[in-house]
Amino acid sequence: MRTIFWDGCVKLIDQTLLPDRFEVMECRKVEELAEAIKRLAVRGAPALEAAGGYGIALAAHEHDFSKVEELKEHIKKAAEYLASTRPTAVNLFYGIDRVLRAAMEGKSVKEVRQLALNEAERLANEDVERNKLMGKHGAKLLKDGFTVLTYCNTGRLATVDWGTALGVVRSAVEEGKRIKVIACETRPLNQGSRLTAWELMQDGIDVTLITDSMVGMVMQKGMVDCVIVGADRIVRDAVFNKIGTYTVAVLAKEHGIPFYVAAPATTFDWGREAKDVVIEERSREELIYCNIKCRQTLIAPPNVKVYNPAFDSTPLRYVTALITERGVIYPPYDENIPKVLGF
Ligand code: MRU
Protein backbone atom coordinates (compact mmCIF):
# COMPACT_ATOMS: atom_id res chain seq x y z
CA MET A 1 0.00 0.00 0.00
CA ARG A 2 1.21 3.51 -0.81
CA THR A 3 1.96 5.91 2.05
CA ILE A 4 0.02 8.71 0.35
CA PHE A 5 -2.43 8.54 -2.54
CA TRP A 6 -5.45 10.15 -4.20
CA ASP A 7 -8.86 8.61 -3.80
CA GLY A 8 -11.26 11.48 -4.38
CA CYS A 9 -9.27 13.34 -1.71
CA VAL A 10 -5.77 12.87 -0.26
CA LYS A 11 -5.41 9.72 1.82
CA LEU A 12 -2.34 8.93 3.88
CA ILE A 13 -1.11 6.51 6.50
CA ASP A 14 -1.18 8.42 9.80
CA GLN A 15 2.41 7.79 10.93
CA THR A 16 1.89 9.34 14.36
CA LEU A 17 -0.18 6.27 15.33
CA LEU A 18 2.37 3.62 14.33
CA PRO A 19 3.30 1.05 15.51
CA ASP A 20 0.25 1.04 17.83
CA ARG A 21 -2.37 1.41 15.14
CA PHE A 22 -2.43 1.34 11.36
CA GLU A 23 -4.90 3.94 10.12
CA VAL A 24 -5.42 5.73 6.84
CA MET A 25 -6.60 9.30 7.26
CA GLU A 26 -8.46 11.46 4.76
CA CYS A 27 -7.63 15.06 3.95
CA ARG A 28 -10.50 16.79 2.20
CA LYS A 29 -9.17 20.32 2.73
CA VAL A 30 -5.73 21.82 2.22
CA GLU A 31 -5.79 22.88 5.90
CA GLU A 32 -6.15 19.24 6.94
CA LEU A 33 -3.21 18.17 4.81
CA ALA A 34 -1.09 21.08 6.06
CA GLU A 35 -1.86 20.05 9.64
CA ALA A 36 -0.95 16.42 8.83
CA ILE A 37 2.41 17.63 7.47
CA LYS A 38 3.10 19.80 10.54
CA ARG A 39 2.38 17.05 13.04
CA LEU A 40 4.34 14.49 10.95
CA ALA A 41 1.38 12.26 10.09
CA VAL A 42 3.09 12.32 6.69
CA ARG A 43 6.84 12.88 6.75
CA GLY A 44 10.12 12.01 5.06
CA ALA A 45 11.39 14.17 2.19
CA PRO A 46 10.03 12.15 -0.79
CA ALA A 47 6.64 11.59 0.90
CA LEU A 48 6.51 15.36 1.50
CA GLU A 49 7.20 15.91 -2.20
CA ALA A 50 4.14 13.79 -3.03
CA ALA A 51 2.14 15.54 -0.27
CA GLY A 52 3.02 18.94 -1.75
CA GLY A 53 1.90 17.79 -5.19
CA TYR A 54 -1.33 16.21 -3.95
CA GLY A 55 -1.93 19.32 -1.83
CA ILE A 56 -2.12 21.42 -4.99
CA ALA A 57 -4.46 18.87 -6.58
CA LEU A 58 -6.60 19.07 -3.44
CA ALA A 59 -6.67 22.87 -3.62
CA ALA A 60 -7.89 22.56 -7.21
CA HIS A 61 -10.76 20.31 -6.14
CA GLU A 62 -11.83 21.52 -2.68
CA HIS A 63 -14.20 24.39 -3.62
CA ASP A 64 -16.57 25.20 -6.46
CA PHE A 65 -15.20 27.97 -8.62
CA SER A 66 -16.96 29.14 -11.76
CA LYS A 67 -14.11 31.35 -12.99
CA VAL A 68 -10.75 29.79 -13.80
CA GLU A 69 -8.83 32.87 -12.61
CA GLU A 70 -10.44 32.62 -9.17
CA LEU A 71 -9.48 28.97 -8.94
CA LYS A 72 -5.90 29.79 -9.93
CA GLU A 73 -5.69 32.47 -7.23
CA HIS A 74 -6.97 29.99 -4.67
CA ILE A 75 -4.37 27.40 -5.74
CA LYS A 76 -1.52 29.95 -5.51
CA LYS A 77 -2.55 30.83 -1.94
CA ALA A 78 -2.76 27.13 -1.06
CA ALA A 79 0.76 26.66 -2.47
CA GLU A 80 2.11 29.38 -0.16
CA TYR A 81 0.30 27.86 2.80
CA LEU A 82 1.59 24.34 2.12
CA ALA A 83 5.12 25.70 1.65
CA SER A 84 4.97 27.28 5.11
CA THR A 85 4.44 23.96 6.92
CA ARG A 86 8.04 22.68 7.16
CA PRO A 87 11.19 24.50 5.98
CA THR A 88 14.00 21.97 5.56
CA ALA A 89 13.12 19.18 3.10
CA VAL A 90 13.49 20.75 -0.33
CA ASN A 91 11.31 18.03 -1.89
CA LEU A 92 8.18 19.61 -0.40
CA PHE A 93 8.78 22.79 -2.41
CA TYR A 94 9.66 20.83 -5.53
CA GLY A 95 6.36 18.91 -5.34
CA ILE A 96 4.32 22.06 -4.77
CA ASP A 97 6.05 24.05 -7.55
CA ARG A 98 5.84 21.32 -10.13
CA VAL A 99 2.12 20.67 -9.74
CA LEU A 100 1.39 24.40 -9.41
CA ARG A 101 3.13 25.05 -12.72
CA ALA A 102 1.17 22.27 -14.43
CA ALA A 103 -2.15 23.55 -13.02
CA MET A 104 -1.48 27.10 -14.22
CA GLU A 105 -1.46 25.86 -17.82
CA GLY A 106 -5.20 25.04 -17.61
CA LYS A 107 -7.65 27.17 -19.58
CA SER A 108 -10.80 26.13 -17.73
CA VAL A 109 -11.70 25.05 -14.18
CA LYS A 110 -12.05 21.47 -15.40
CA GLU A 111 -8.71 21.53 -17.18
CA VAL A 112 -6.85 23.07 -14.20
CA ARG A 113 -8.21 20.32 -11.96
CA GLN A 114 -7.29 17.58 -14.39
CA LEU A 115 -3.78 18.93 -15.03
CA ALA A 116 -3.09 19.28 -11.30
CA LEU A 117 -4.23 15.77 -10.49
CA ASN A 118 -2.39 14.23 -13.44
CA GLU A 119 0.86 15.91 -12.44
CA ALA A 120 0.48 14.94 -8.76
CA GLU A 121 -0.09 11.31 -9.78
CA ARG A 122 2.90 11.45 -12.14
CA LEU A 123 5.07 12.79 -9.32
CA ALA A 124 3.98 9.99 -6.97
CA ASN A 125 4.59 7.31 -9.60
CA GLU A 126 8.02 8.74 -10.38
CA ASP A 127 8.96 8.48 -6.73
CA VAL A 128 8.35 4.73 -6.71
CA GLU A 129 10.27 4.27 -9.98
CA ARG A 130 13.29 6.25 -8.84
CA ASN A 131 13.39 4.45 -5.49
CA LYS A 132 13.59 1.13 -7.32
CA LEU A 133 16.45 2.50 -9.44
CA MET A 134 18.25 3.81 -6.36
CA GLY A 135 17.77 0.40 -4.82
CA LYS A 136 19.30 -1.34 -7.83
CA HIS A 137 22.37 0.94 -7.89
CA GLY A 138 22.82 0.95 -4.12
CA ALA A 139 22.43 -2.80 -3.70
CA LYS A 140 25.76 -3.22 -5.54
CA LEU A 141 27.45 -1.68 -2.49
CA LEU A 142 26.05 -4.32 -0.14
CA LYS A 143 27.73 -7.72 0.12
CA ASP A 144 25.90 -10.83 1.24
CA GLY A 145 25.99 -10.91 5.06
CA PHE A 146 26.37 -7.15 5.54
CA THR A 147 24.96 -5.31 8.55
CA VAL A 148 23.72 -1.83 7.65
CA LEU A 149 23.24 0.84 10.29
CA THR A 150 20.51 3.35 9.46
CA TYR A 151 19.04 6.44 11.03
CA CYS A 152 15.51 7.87 11.14
CA ASN A 153 13.03 6.34 8.70
CA THR A 154 13.81 6.27 4.99
CA GLY A 155 11.56 3.42 3.92
CA ARG A 156 8.15 2.96 2.37
CA LEU A 157 6.72 5.34 4.97
CA ALA A 158 9.14 8.16 4.13
CA THR A 159 8.39 7.88 0.42
CA VAL A 160 5.39 6.91 -1.70
CA ASP A 161 6.70 3.34 -1.63
CA TRP A 162 9.91 1.26 -1.37
CA GLY A 163 12.17 3.84 0.25
CA THR A 164 15.54 5.49 -0.32
CA ALA A 165 18.13 4.12 2.14
CA LEU A 166 15.78 1.32 3.19
CA GLY A 167 14.92 0.85 -0.48
CA VAL A 168 18.58 -0.04 -1.04
CA VAL A 169 18.33 -2.64 1.73
CA ARG A 170 15.04 -3.97 0.27
CA SER A 171 16.57 -4.30 -3.20
CA ALA A 172 19.61 -6.15 -1.86
CA VAL A 173 17.34 -8.53 0.09
CA GLU A 174 15.21 -9.00 -3.03
CA GLU A 175 18.41 -10.04 -4.87
CA GLY A 176 18.85 -12.80 -2.29
CA LYS A 177 21.50 -11.16 -0.09
CA ARG A 178 21.31 -11.73 3.65
CA ILE A 179 21.29 -8.21 5.05
CA LYS A 180 20.81 -7.20 8.66
CA VAL A 181 19.80 -3.72 9.74
CA ILE A 182 20.63 -1.83 12.91
CA ALA A 183 17.97 0.86 13.39
CA CYS A 184 18.70 3.82 15.63
CA GLU A 185 15.78 4.92 17.75
CA THR A 186 16.04 8.54 16.46
CA ARG A 187 15.03 10.73 19.35
CA PRO A 188 12.96 12.71 20.01
CA LEU A 189 10.18 11.47 17.71
CA ASN A 190 11.48 7.92 17.34
CA GLN A 191 11.06 7.50 13.60
CA GLY A 192 13.64 4.70 13.85
CA SER A 193 11.95 2.63 16.54
CA ARG A 194 8.34 3.40 15.63
CA LEU A 195 8.59 3.30 11.84
CA THR A 196 11.84 1.73 10.57
CA ALA A 197 11.71 -1.23 12.94
CA TRP A 198 7.99 -1.70 12.22
CA GLU A 199 8.20 -1.59 8.45
CA LEU A 200 11.29 -3.82 8.21
CA MET A 201 9.61 -6.39 10.44
CA GLN A 202 6.52 -6.24 8.21
CA ASP A 203 8.78 -7.27 5.31
CA GLY A 204 10.61 -9.94 7.30
CA ILE A 205 13.94 -8.05 7.14
CA ASP A 206 16.27 -8.69 10.08
CA VAL A 207 16.32 -5.55 12.24
CA THR A 208 17.84 -4.76 15.64
CA LEU A 209 16.87 -1.61 17.50
CA ILE A 210 19.46 0.45 19.40
CA THR A 211 19.35 3.81 21.14
CA ASP A 212 21.10 6.67 19.38
CA SER A 213 23.76 6.72 22.08
CA MET A 214 24.87 3.17 21.19
CA VAL A 215 26.11 3.99 17.67
CA GLY A 216 29.75 4.48 18.71
CA MET A 217 29.77 1.28 20.71
CA VAL A 218 28.34 -0.96 17.96
CA MET A 219 30.83 0.50 15.49
CA GLN A 220 33.72 -0.03 17.90
CA LYS A 221 32.65 -3.65 18.34
CA GLY A 222 32.82 -4.22 14.55
CA MET A 223 29.07 -4.81 14.26
CA VAL A 224 28.51 -2.38 11.34
CA ASP A 225 29.67 -2.86 7.71
CA CYS A 226 28.25 0.38 6.38
CA VAL A 227 25.85 3.21 7.17
CA ILE A 228 23.07 4.26 4.80
CA VAL A 229 20.89 7.27 5.55
CA GLY A 230 18.53 9.43 3.53
CA ALA A 231 18.49 13.21 3.11
CA ASP A 232 16.12 16.13 3.31
CA ARG A 233 18.29 18.47 1.29
CA ILE A 234 21.73 18.19 -0.28
CA VAL A 235 23.54 21.45 -0.91
CA ARG A 236 27.01 22.15 -2.34
CA ASP A 237 28.79 21.51 0.94
CA ALA A 238 26.51 19.39 3.11
CA VAL A 239 23.74 16.86 3.55
CA PHE A 240 20.78 17.87 5.73
CA ASN A 241 19.08 14.96 7.45
CA LYS A 242 17.44 14.04 10.75
CA ILE A 243 19.14 15.45 13.85
CA GLY A 244 21.86 13.01 14.91
CA THR A 245 22.97 12.07 11.40
CA TYR A 246 26.11 14.21 11.72
CA THR A 247 27.14 12.34 14.87
CA VAL A 248 26.71 9.02 13.06
CA ALA A 249 28.80 10.29 10.10
CA VAL A 250 31.67 11.45 12.33
CA LEU A 251 31.66 8.12 14.16
CA ALA A 252 31.64 6.21 10.86
CA LYS A 253 34.70 8.14 9.67
CA GLU A 254 36.52 7.50 12.95
CA HIS A 255 35.89 3.76 12.58
CA GLY A 256 36.63 3.59 8.83
CA ILE A 257 33.05 2.56 8.01
CA PRO A 258 31.54 3.69 4.66
CA PHE A 259 28.84 6.33 5.10
CA TYR A 260 26.35 6.40 2.19
CA VAL A 261 23.50 8.82 1.54
CA ALA A 262 20.62 7.65 -0.66
CA ALA A 263 18.50 10.42 -2.17
CA PRO A 264 16.75 11.26 -5.45
CA ALA A 265 17.81 14.17 -7.69
CA THR A 266 14.91 16.24 -6.32
CA THR A 267 16.56 16.31 -2.87
CA PHE A 268 19.54 18.23 -4.31
CA ASP A 269 19.52 22.00 -3.96
CA TRP A 270 22.78 22.57 -5.75
CA GLY A 271 22.48 26.35 -5.91
CA ARG A 272 22.70 26.66 -2.13
CA GLU A 273 25.19 26.13 0.69
CA ALA A 274 24.61 24.90 4.25
CA LYS A 275 24.48 28.45 5.61
CA ASP A 276 21.43 29.21 3.41
CA VAL A 277 19.26 26.40 4.76
CA VAL A 278 16.65 26.88 7.48
CA ILE A 279 16.68 24.10 10.05
CA GLU A 280 13.24 23.45 11.49
CA GLU A 281 12.97 23.89 15.24
CA ARG A 282 10.19 21.93 16.87
CA SER A 283 8.27 22.25 20.10
CA ARG A 284 9.69 21.87 23.62
CA GLU A 285 6.94 19.32 24.35
CA GLU A 286 8.71 16.78 22.10
CA LEU A 287 11.56 16.68 24.60
CA ILE A 288 9.88 17.06 27.92
CA TYR A 289 7.10 14.47 27.56
CA CYS A 290 7.58 10.76 27.22
CA ASN A 291 4.56 10.57 24.92
CA ILE A 292 4.08 13.80 23.03
CA LYS A 293 0.53 12.83 22.06
CA CYS A 294 -0.94 12.48 25.55
CA ARG A 295 1.41 15.02 27.20
CA GLN A 296 1.12 13.26 30.54
CA THR A 297 4.42 11.74 31.64
CA LEU A 298 7.13 14.32 32.12
CA ILE A 299 10.70 13.19 31.46
CA ALA A 300 12.21 16.59 32.15
CA PRO A 301 11.36 19.49 34.44
CA PRO A 302 8.42 21.24 32.71
CA ASN A 303 10.12 24.64 32.72
CA VAL A 304 13.60 23.50 31.57
CA LYS A 305 15.17 25.42 28.67
CA VAL A 306 14.93 23.30 25.50
CA TYR A 307 16.68 23.35 22.13
CA ASN A 308 15.02 21.05 19.59
CA PRO A 309 16.33 21.34 16.01
CA ALA A 310 14.83 18.62 13.78
CA PHE A 311 17.78 18.33 11.36
CA ASP A 312 21.54 18.73 11.22
CA SER A 313 24.04 19.16 8.40
CA THR A 314 26.81 16.70 7.61
CA PRO A 315 29.69 18.15 5.57
CA LEU A 316 30.10 16.27 2.29
CA ARG A 317 33.64 15.22 3.23
CA TYR A 318 32.07 12.62 5.55
CA VAL A 319 30.04 11.06 2.75
CA THR A 320 31.68 8.06 1.04
CA ALA A 321 29.19 8.09 -1.84
CA LEU A 322 25.74 9.34 -2.80
CA ILE A 323 23.25 6.79 -4.10
CA THR A 324 20.85 8.34 -6.63
CA GLU A 325 18.45 7.04 -9.28
CA ARG A 326 21.09 7.92 -11.92
CA GLY A 327 23.84 5.94 -10.23
CA VAL A 328 26.30 6.02 -7.33
CA ILE A 329 28.26 9.28 -7.16
CA TYR A 330 31.74 9.42 -5.59
CA PRO A 331 33.93 12.44 -4.74
CA PRO A 332 34.98 14.89 -6.02
CA TYR A 333 31.31 15.90 -5.67
CA ASP A 334 31.80 19.37 -7.13
CA GLU A 335 32.67 17.71 -10.41
CA ASN A 336 30.68 14.49 -10.29
CA ILE A 337 27.28 15.62 -8.97
CA PRO A 338 26.63 18.10 -11.81
CA LYS A 339 28.01 15.55 -14.30
CA VAL A 340 25.70 12.72 -13.19
CA LEU A 341 22.61 14.74 -12.29
CA GLY A 342 22.96 17.37 -15.02
CA PHE A 343 22.85 20.50 -12.83
O1 MRU B 1 11.19 14.89 10.40
P1 MRU B 1 11.08 13.79 9.39
O2 MRU B 1 10.60 12.50 9.96
O3 MRU B 1 10.29 14.23 8.18
O4 MRU B 1 12.57 13.55 8.92
C1 MRU B 1 12.82 12.61 7.92
C2 MRU B 1 14.26 12.39 7.67
O5 MRU B 1 15.12 13.05 8.19
C3 MRU B 1 14.60 11.34 6.66
O6 MRU B 1 15.82 10.75 6.98
C4 MRU B 1 14.73 12.02 5.28
O7 MRU B 1 13.56 12.70 4.95
C5 MRU B 1 15.03 11.05 4.22
S1 MRU B 1 13.60 10.07 3.88
C6 MRU B 1 13.79 9.13 2.55
List keywords for this structure.
343 residues, alpha/beta, Four Helix Bundle (Hemerythrin (Met), subunit A), Rossmann fold, 2 domains, 7-stranded mixed β-sheet, 3-stranded antiparallel β-sheet, 11 helices, 13 strands, globular, binds 5-S-methyl-1-O-phosphono-5-thio-D-ribulose
Tell me what you see in this structure.
By secondary structure, the protein is α/β, with parallel strands linked by helices. It has two domains: 4-131, Up-down Bundle (Four Helix Bundle (Hemerythrin (Met), subunit A)); 138-341, Translation initiation factor eif-2b, domain 2 (Rossmann fold, 3-Layer(aba) Sandwich). The chain has helices spanning 30-38, 45-61, 68-83, 90-104, 109-139, 165-174, 191-202, 215-220, 245-254, 285-288, 333-341, and strands spanning 4-6, 10-13, 24-27, 147-150, 180-184, 206-210, 226-229, 233-234, 238-242, 259-262, 311-315, 321-324, 327-329. The strands form three sheets. A seven-stranded mixed beta sheet has the order 6-5-4-7-10-12-13, with helices on both faces. A three-stranded antiparallel beta sheet has the order 1-2-3. The chain is globular and about 65 Å long. The relative contact order is 0.11. Bound molecules: 5-S-methyl-1-O-phosphono-5-thio-D-ribulose. 5-S-methyl-1-O-phosphono-5-thio-D-ribulose binds at residues 40, 43-46, 89, 152, 154, 158-159, 164, 191, 230-232, 241-242, 310.
